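Thanks for the sequence, V.! I ran Lens fiber membrane intrinsic protein right away. Repeating your input here for the record:
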Amino acid sequence: MVPLRKSCSAAAPLSQLKMYSFMGGGLFCAIVGNILLVVSTATDYWMQYRMSGNYAHQGLWRYCMSNKCYMQTDSIAYWNATRAFMILSGMSCFAGIIAGIMSFSHFSSFERFNRSFAAGIMFFVSTFFVLLGMAIYTGVTVNFLGKRFGDWRFSWSYILGWVAMLMNFFAGIFYICAYRMCECRRGNGPR
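Predicted structure:
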């Protein structure tokens, strides 16, 4: 005799409310995370340092000294890698947001495709890309640039990148929890 799995169908309204709560929390985290990603990537306060007695700051695209900003024209591998991973992260987060919004509707032409699961995976992919970009930038800055400039520190654009990574991670957690609630609500039918 095969033991029956307990279904959440008896508590369907409560289960559905929990599912929508997880999806709403995930969507909030994802939207905030994507905004932070865009701001972090676009601004030029990743690192601040003192050079020739003046304060200077730099980002992924520009560096500024003595109230004048200049484009980063050097094609340095770690800048290009960090830029690419941050842009890929923003794109995958945006795709996750679209899938997350679509997951509020239950009309699916694919029986085995769950939009909540797809959104959660996209947010985890986005988290991974941010982690790669931030790790590359951190490693190069600490090991090479930090030794070149005596008085330096990471600045707010850099910190926003780490916060965006956490927000995308939590968005993924929320959407995977919503997926689990949806699976529980479906019962124990064959797949």
